[in-house]
Amino acid sequence: MSKENGNWDSAFVCLDNLSKSIGTQDILSGVSLEIRKGETMVLIGSSGGGKSVTLKHITGLMKPDNGRVLIKGQDIASLTARQLAAVRQRIGLLFQNGALFDSMTVGQNVAFPLRERTQGAPEKLIEKVIEALKLVNLEGHINKMPVDLSGGMRKRVALARAMITHPELMLYDEPTAGLDPVASGAIDKLILQMQENYGVTSVVVTHDMKSAEKIADRIAFLHKGRVYFCGTPEELRDCGDSVVTNFISGHSGLPS
Ligand SMILES: Nc1ncnc2c1ncn2[C@@H]1O[C@H](COP(=O)(O)OP(=O)(O)OP(=O)(O)O)[C@@H](O)[C@H]1O
Ligand SMILES: [Mg+2]
Question: Which ligand is nearest to the CA of 22?
């Protein structure tokens, strides 16, 4: 366990025994996980098992009933609203559904997080938007409306919007869901580039085991409200545990 405000380098994000019930349903029942600085942690598990809820705890959008979320050694529950907002500014979040603003152009969507935060010169803003769109190979589409884009392009715009503030921590919720293999591969490549070029720490929720194996330094398997297994893709493949093996081989479609 990392020491609060001390040497947090080994765990950029530390989930310490998180539990969360919503209504009568226990969603998280003691989730513990350390995500190291610069690593890509992939989170897998059954549908409805609490992966998105776990991401929401990392951003502070949801609060645990018990347990702590430490970011760089700091318990986010101890932060003031202003301090938490500052931490959130360093986190890029790609929502499960992309969530673009339909009434805004691609460029306006991507610019949104910066407009919210700074009153910089418009030329500078446009420069940054183009730079972010270049990363996702969409610089030629800046004036289009989201409705005129394919699903994969919308995901990439959402990614550009999440990356424009150069976050230290990226949270991706199902970035490749519903995309064809080429579009999925492009997103995987981007996630890897973010890590290699900017040293970004990432948590990626996915059902796509091929993508998981490509991008993950480690994979955490969420099962029955806990991290049942956490290890490298090889360790996961070779662990020999029947619950893990059944999940990976596709016998896990049913809720746990
Ligand atoms: N705001 C909420 N209010 C009520 N229940 C919620 C809320 N958010 C999540 N839940 C419930 O918590 C459980 C876990 O949801 P979550 O979205 O984390 O699943 P998931 O693992 O991300 O699933 P999927 O792979 O289908 O996206 C579900 O039963 C869901 O209905
Ligand atoms: Mg989800």
Answer: 1
- Mean pLDDT, rounded, for 54-70: 95
**Does 207 have pLDDT greater than 70?**
yes
Which 3-state string (H, E, C) describes 227-240?
EEEEECHHHHHHCC
Minimum CA distance residue for ligand 1 atom 30: 48
- To test ligand 1's pocket by mutation, which of 20, 26, 51 has the most ligand atoms within 8 angstroms of CB? 51
CB 97 less than 6 A from any atom of ligand 1: no
**Distance between Cα 177 and ligand 2 center (Å):** 11
Angle between helices 151-163 and 181-198 (to 10 degrees): 10
When computed from its CA atoms, the radius of gyration of the chain, rounded to whole angstroms, is 18
Angle between the N-to-C axes of helices 106-117 and 151-163, in degrees from 0 to 180, rounded to the nearest 10: 20
Q: Ligand 1 atom closest to Cα of 55?
A: 18
Q: Which residues are within 5 Å of ligand 2 (an ion), measured at CB? A: 52
pTM metric for this prediction: 0.89
Ligand 1 contact via 47 beta carbon (within 6 Å): yes
For the chain, the domains span: 99-163
Distance set, CA 31 to CA 12, 57, 139 (Å): 16, 11, 40
SS3 state of residue 91 = strand
Q: What distances in angstroms separate CA 88 from CA 77, 120, 149, 165, one per listed residue?
A: 13, 20, 28, 11
Reported as a single tens digit per residue, the pLDDT across 113-170 is 887 666 667 778 899 999 999 988 899 999 999 999 988 889 889 999 998 888 999 9
Atom 4 of ligand 1, residue of closest alpha carbon:
22
